[in-house]
Design a protein that fits this description.
The chain is an all-alpha fold and 478 residues long. It has helices at residues 2-17, 19-62, 69-75, 130-146, 151-155, 159-164, 169-200, 205-232, 236-265, 271-283, 297-307, 319-355, 361-373, 377-405, 408-413, 418-423, 444-473; strands spanning 77-80, 100-104, 107-108.
């Protein structure tokens, strides 16, 4: 062990004498620290702003005066997705997906107010978060500092004397690898500090450990690759060329190919096409604003039979409210089916993209990072489902008020009779059917479990490259 530490210390002495190496290391540390600070401040400000807007939206809704309940259905309400604590390191899909939804009756609106409308692969390039900086540039720093760790000894003629003095090839490689891994550890320090802040804001230790572990394993993969290539290469120039080409392939080209393949294999339906498909199906369901629509004849017959009365005027409930409630339930079932189909397509695309993690460790890291942080597509889909549950509950709550508190005779005359219109205004106390909304990302256990698969891919990469390192050690001879 002492020899390994001596080799690592000697490598650090070489790097300290190299202004370029120290400058590169310093620049990356500054870039990671700056991106961590700026991203943390931005996410914190966004979280505070969204929480405030959510509170204001709820207060505004509940402070509306006495009205007809169906007017409040159309008045609508906003819900906001607040970012989870680890979003200050990896915002995930947040910059490219909507962060708020306007909820109203008879429709499911899309999420709005994304920071940038870009594709899935450009999402992490839209802002230089610490996760982006580390996944893209930390490997380049390791390459710049480590491409010659073994070839330098060979070219300088010091490899033979070292081996002749009894330093085994594995000990020499272990010392060089320890030095390179310590560089990787330094680049992770800003992440560790930021993760500590995330824990103080409520993130769990398990999710944070998996999150940081994914970045650590990713950088160890690159350390192993660099050591192996440097050990197998005869010259520094060839080692540097090979490593830069591999970086371009694994970090830039393969993710782009993966995105194109995912979009081709699991194509998503266009918005116009999807909207027409929804409208075609909704046309046959009847207009919930028109209680005389033939689509509700069977509903009327069933109610008359249930309450044993001759006409809707004799019903103990407002038939127009019952129609509104029934129509909303049927319409929501259709909208939810199309929404689930759209989300299933997105999941298929993401799954195909993630499967390329066997080819690119950068993609495996991206999956592990966003999943454990709660900023991936799963969290976005949870927000959509949670928002829809709020929408449906408050709309149906108002429809029940419509059915139970308004007289049918007043309801049908309210447009022509001022007194009937006054009597169809219900107390604003009924607006309390709207529940407080605070988005909660998927549970820590779910996120940790979801990150196991990409961690396994990173582990497989490391095992393969570690085997290559052991193989390369056999070629180091006197």
């Amino acid at each position: 062990m002492r020899t390994i530490l001596l080799v690592a210390a000697d490598e650090w002495r070489f790097w300290r004498r190299s202004r370029l190496a120290m400058l590169a290391l310093g620049l990356l540390l500054v870039l990671v620290a700056a991106s961590a600070t700026l991203t943390a401040l931005r996410v914190a400000n966004e979280a505070e702003a969204r929480a405030l807007l959510q509170s204001e939206a709820e207060e505004t809704y509940r402070s509306q005066p006495d009205r007809h309940p169906h007017r409040m259905v159309h008045y609508g309400h906003y819900v906001f997705r607040t970012p989870p604590p680890l979003a200050m390191i990896d915002p995930g899909v947040d910059p490219v997906t909507g962060q708020s939804i306007f909820l109203e009756g008879h429709r499911q609106n899309a999420a709005m107010f994304a920071d940038a409308k870009t594709g899935a692969t450009a999402g992490q390039l839209a802002d230089m978060s610490p996760a982006v900086v580390l996944s893209l540039f930390a490997p380049l720093l390791l390459i710049a500092m480590g491409y010659s760790v073994m070839t330098r000894e060979r070219e300088n003629g010091t490899l033979g004397p070292l081996l002749a003095q009894g330093v085994s090839p594995l000990t020499l490689i272990a010392g060089k690898g320890l030095a390179l891994a310590s560089v990787a550890g330094l680049t992770l320090l800003p992440l560790v500090l930021t993760a500590a802040v995330a824990i103080s804001k409520g993130e769990t230790l398990a999710a944070t450990a998996v999150f940081l572990g994914s970045f650590s394993l990713y950088l160890l993969v690159w350390c192993a690759l660099i050591i192996a290539v440097s050990s197998l290469s005869a010259r520094r120039a060839s080692s540097l060329t090979i490593l830069v080409v591999v970086w371009i392939l694994l970090v830039l080209i393969v993710p782009r190919i993966a995105a194109n393949v995912a979009a081709s294999v699991a194509p998503a339906q266009g918005k116009i096409e999807a909207d027409f498909a929804v409208l075609n199906e909704l046309r046959s369901m009847g207009d919930g604003h028109n209680a005389a629509d033939p689509a509700f004849e069977q509903l009327k017959a069933n109610l008359l039979l249930q309450y044993d009365v001759a006409s809707v005027e004799d019903l103990p409930v407002n038939f127009r409210g019952i129609v509104a409630e029934t129509a909303e339930a049927d319409l929501t079932a259709v909208l939810n089916r199309f929404a689930e189909e759209r989300m299933a397509t997105e999941v298929r695309q993401v799954s195909l993209l993630r499967s390329f993690g066997w080819i690119s460790p950068a993609l495996a890291l991206r999956e592990a990072s966003m999943t454990s942080a709660g900023t991936g597509v799963e969290a976005h889909h949870k927000f959509l489902r949670d928002a829809e549950a709020v929408r449906f509950d408050f709309v149906q709550g108002l429809n029940r008020v419509h059915a139970e508190q308004l007289a049918y005779a007043d309801d049908i005359k309210r447009s022509s009779d001022p007194e009937a219109e006054r009597r169809t205004r219900v107390s604003s106390e009924n607006w309390k059917v709207l529940e407080d909304f605070h988005f909660v990302p998927p549970p820590s256990d779910t996120r940790v479990e979801g990150a196991l698969a990409p961690l396994a891919r990173l582990g497989a990469w490391f095992a393969l490259l570690f085997g290559l390192v052991l193989f390369s050690a056999r070629g180091l001879k006197l």
